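To: structure subgroup
Subject: Chain for Friday's discussion

All,

I'm putting the inputs and outputs inline so they're searchable in the archive.
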Amino acid sequence: MEISTTASTTPVDDARLAEILANPGFGQHFTDHMFTVEWTPDAGWHAARIEPYGPLTLDPATSVLHYAQEIFEGMKAYRHEDGSIWSFRPEENAGRMVRSSHRLALPVLEVPDFIQAVDELVKIDQRWVPDAAGEKSLYLRPFMFGSEAFLGVRPSQHVTFMVIASPAGAYFKGGIKPVSLWLTEEYTRAGRGGMGAAKTGGNYASSLVAQQEATAHGCDQVVFLDGQEGRYVEELGGMNMYFVYDDGHIVTPATGTILEGITRSSIIELAGKLGHQVEERKFSIDEWRDGVTSGRITEIFACGTAAVVTPVGSLKWAGGEVPGASEGGEVTTQVRQALVDIQYGRAEDTFGWMHRIV
């Protein structure tokens, strides 16, 4: 793409930026610029530009506001000890956005264009990438939405793709400790033939009421079962799950209706290299309960771009509770450390996952 650049005339000053990067939180502060490119059937993708970060002006009839034709990605840029900046498997995020585009009837932004858009925004806002201390990073949010102003149930004929960025600290404020889970037996996240495998805002919107239910019962996160039989574990509101057995093998749910997480697929490869056989298969809630009770399941952890790898503690539901670990187990800790060491350049990237931006 040919990208025009208009630099911000009011960038955040160095002193304020230092304050932000010292304690960035998650998704609270945004960089000085944003990337935008537009699509129409006649012109294709055009008007690619980087410009100062700021509000959007949308017509009240903009289609995304009425028909939720929207997809997004989540990824990070990491600063290594030598000052260089890298992203983690951006081609996988780009490929997943292609698949999401097909499911939501949106135009495809080709993989090289996706990576170029992300790279160019990071380059112009590279001072916003924190040092690695405390596992800080620059969270990147590419997203695409139907931006045509009309009312009618059909694919939008004007589409906008954007990238914004936000410095990020640890996702869970309390640090790396087991999260408690609430099993919702009323709500499901996705059904067969639905949008479960697409990264679209509607999936997350549908999880919020169940998350409220979890919070009301004193739990950190909610876990969903499949929508067809209500027996099989799918995922949390925004994370994939892994179950470690006493013989060292690991099971991760695969039902065809869960998001194909980039961190999830990376852990499958990484765990294999670390000597753990990983099974992708249906995993029932009864197997979870019985496995923890019998001691066959020794560790449980969840993973995602924002949280990386997080140990799982107790599981609660309306009729009872299965207690969990009070700290991360050996395998959880091993997998997590191996992954973040690659991301931050502390270990050799034998998989070829890291992509240098600066």
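Points worth raising on Friday:
The radius of gyration is 21 Å.
The mean pLDDT is 94.

D.
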